[in-house]
Specification:
Length: 365
């Protein structure tokens, strides 16, 4: 059984694709030692997209020509969709490593596209409830990176739930991932009236790191609350003693996750690779493989329609990242719990786990 992966081994997406790709390879190795999927050994062919959307399509075309039966694509809708669309056109199942846009699925790509991740809108909504109920902050400034669908949906989920529950957004500003300066946005934060109790940032490194570094250099020491793209310490190296930063995540890779299975996996990953995982996105590698393998075994086939029918029947299937439910319409998790991580002196630490009181509204487009 030959699977393909058109992912970013180099460039911008390597920080997000690298760890789950390595974890996927380990999961395949372990499964092959147990007899493979339905008795068939699994081989993974990998093409580097160089974090380029056009190259992602080319890589997917090449893998399809080599006869892959399922395609793994990048951990983002914008960078993974071009490859997933090729798989859809070829009548093959695709799985993103960890795309969190609700567009990654039946409506945004097609009926054969899936992601093991939870929706960014739901993550945003859960974060809003955490801010209000756990930290008791009700005045925030929202700083949104308008580059990716992930950023937009994360902020949408947060803003809607925060204001619905009585929070006040005292100011907003946008920036782009490649912006070298956020001086004008910092000026808006300083001028906000009333002053915010925290800053909500919806972005991914390196852009998020640039913005946070400049915010702290400007003397603004307000708590900063971000999405799971802030996980890992690799981006904090240029910001000495970074503190009072918080983010939601799929799990904690710091040995303190409340789920012993997560802690055990992190240890096994480090033993196998010689280094700890860079981010909690690593947990999605084995998750997507087990979801696909289970569906193939239930279907008794790798034929896309049969595998999709099996996947669409999944209801709260237990995985390393939480229960997974798919339907014909929804190919992303909408009701998972999130862990919350706090950073003090550059060291992330698990704080608590929270599930939103209700999923965020599911919207595409």
């Amino acid at each position: 059984m030959v699977l393909g992966a058109a992912v970013g081994e180099t460039g911008f997406m390597a920080a997000y694709d690298g760890a789950p790709l390595e974890a996927l390879k380990l999961a395949i190795k372990e499964r092959n030692a147990e007899g493979g999927i339905d008795g068939r050994p699994v081989e993974l062919l990998v093409k580097d997209t160089h974090s380029d959307k056009a190259t992602a399509k080319t890589a997917a075309d090449e893998l399809m020509s080599e006869g892959v039966e399922m395609l793994v694509v990048s951990c983002d809708f914008d960078y993974g969709a071009p490859a997933a669309q090729v798989a859809q056109q070829e009548g093959k199942i695709s799985f993103s490593l960890c795309a969190q846009s609700v567009k990654f699925g039946a409506q945004g790509i097609g009926p054969y596209a899936y992601t093991p991740a939870a929706a960014a809108v739901d993550q945003g909504a859960t974060t809003a409830e955490w801010v209000l109920d756990k930290k008791h902050w009700d005045k925030g400034f929202v700083l949104e990176d308008s580059t990716l669908a992930y950023d937009e949906e994360s902020c949408t989920g947060f803003n809607e739930r925060f204001t619905e529950r009585g929070g006040e957004i005292v100011g907003e500003a946008t920036f782009q991932q490649e912006d070298a300066s956020v001086a004008s946005q910092i000026a808006k934060i300083k001028a906000a009236s009333p002053q915010p109790e925290f800053i909500r940032i919806c972005s991914v490194p390196p852009g998020a790191a640039t913005a946070i570094k400049q915010i702290r250099a400007a003397g603004i020491n307000l708590p900063i609350v971000g999405p799971d793209s802030l996980d890992g310490t690799y981006w904090m190296k240029g910001i000495p003693n970074l503190s009072d930063v918080y983010y939601s995540a799929v799990g904690s890779i710091y040995g303190d996750d409340p789920d012993p299975q997560v802690n055990a996996f992190v240890k096994s990953y480090e033993k196998a690779t010689g280094e700890p995982p860079a981010t909690a996105y690593v947990l999605f590698g084995p998750t997507l493989f087990e979801l696909y393998a289970t569906a193939v075994e239930e279907a008794g086939s790798t034929e896309a329609a049969a595998v999709a029918e099996a996947l669409n029947g999944f209801s709260k299937v237990p995985t390393l990242v939480g229960a997974t439910t798919y339907t014909e319409e929804i190919h992303i998790a909408l009701d998972r719990p999130f862990v919350f991580i706090g950073v003090t002196d550059g060291q992330p630490k698990y704080l608590e786990t929270l599930t939103a009181s209700e999923p965020a509204p599911y919207k595409v487009g």
